[in-house]
Fold:
Amino acid sequence: MALTAAQPRLGRLERAALQGVIVREVVNYSSFWRSSTFSSTVDPTIYLLAFGFGFGSLVSTVAGYEYIEFVGTGIVATTVLFSGAFPAMYSTFVKYEFQHTYDAILAAPVDTEEIVTGEALWIGARTGTYGCVPMLVAVAFGLDPSWGMLLVPLIAGLAGLGWAFFGIFIAAKSKAIESFSYWQSGLLTPMFLVAGTFFPLSELPQWAQIAGLVNPLYHCVELVRHAVFGFEGWADVGHVAFLVTFALLSWRLAIRFMERKLIL
Amino acid sequence: MESAIRLRGVVKRFGAITAVDGLDLDVPYGRCVGLLGPNGAGKSTTMKMLTAQVIPDEGALEVLGFRLPDDSKQARAVMGVVPQLDNLDVSLTVEQNLRVFSHLYRVPKAERDAAIERALALANLAPRRESKVDQLSGGMRRRLLITRALLHEPRLVLLDEPTVGLDPQVRQELWALIDRLRSEGVSILMSTHYIEEAERLCDDVTIMSHGKAVAVGAPSKLIAEHAGPEAIEVYGPPARLTEVEGIARTRGWRTRRTGTSVSILRANGDAPDFEGERRVTNLEDVFVLLTGEEIS
Structure:
């Protein structure tokens, strides 16, 4: 017995545990990647085409950009929401409530912190990949390719990670899946619209502009546009800092509320 | 001798309800211990405390020499847990389920394939390795659930109601599987409310009622001590059963209603005037005698 007890104490956020959580996600993903890829790429593409053709026929330039340039870059934020926040909310809730997955994982040498972190890292990686799809569609419709586009997966991945944590937090706070409606209609949809995706914030009333500044999607949109059309120095450092802060805060919130839910 | 599991004075409250109320429990190394009690006795709460999914309010818990909840992760690395609720990944195949858990249980890379093959053989599921879990029968799923917990060759296995809801034939298959583990020297703690399961598989049982241990010992010893060698089971119409209960009470014997009959316990052959079947006593009789409750 002394032998076992003398083993080094296992730490927090261990690589082996994170790897186990991510492997579980990846293997499961292999059974539903088609539907997931479909919704994560088709939804934003439809928004892109609808706004591009509908609104784009009324206006030629917005905020100094051609409309296809404006919306083709802003659309990344839509993907971030569709493939970051929503899958995190639903999959966390389903795994907790219906599949009892967390019971199984917590019986192995994995803690809540590692479950939350591993699952969100995987969703963030997926969001980084999916985030590029509508932008590539926009390229087909006249958005000029640029080297900066290579940074877009990183930006979408960082924003997606933050939204994945936030989605897990929402799921942890919700006692029934019906309460997602409040979060979606009350918070996510307004944020989605007030992010400078389809129209610039500068045309909105001042209170909405201020609200936009604390919207992580807005900072994601700005960063993507600047990556594609040219960075703007400290402003972009600020956007990155905002996204990093959002991810860190959401990370701790998600862990705290998941622990409350999983550990009695 | 140290124990694989050692609980002292463990208390867990959920609001006004005290689910576990000063529980002491020991699982010596290499033994199979049954936690026996009706629904609501605190068995599942106790099992969840052993994986630190429930944190006790009071008391000391030690698993494989690790103090819980602080060092629970180390303990979980060397024990296997079979949950009461099936939490297999239903859209994955049998083999994929095992592969995922070989990672979660940190089986070294070079040993993963061998561990998975061993589990498939033990579960008798090698021909079904490519089947998705939702195509398996209840018994197959349960075998997979058990062998999934054995991938890392744990020294201690927790089984929470391992055969609940399965038909008798499947139950016997699982008993064979559990008995095999036992013969390999794995320490086992098994919660159950099936008396026969505890009698067949467990070296010792702890009988729980209202969150406390009311009796501890080998099944045969507990039966001899509390229920005597035989019971008389008297059948008859309800009025007759009530009458029999009355007579037994005046003679100082304990009785127990078992559906269509009354069992007279501790008569020890002194009841020649009762027409009834003589049967050997069992743990259920012990349980009823000790707690006044039926177990299932």
User: Anything to note?
Assistant: The beta strands of chain A are 61-62, 65-66.
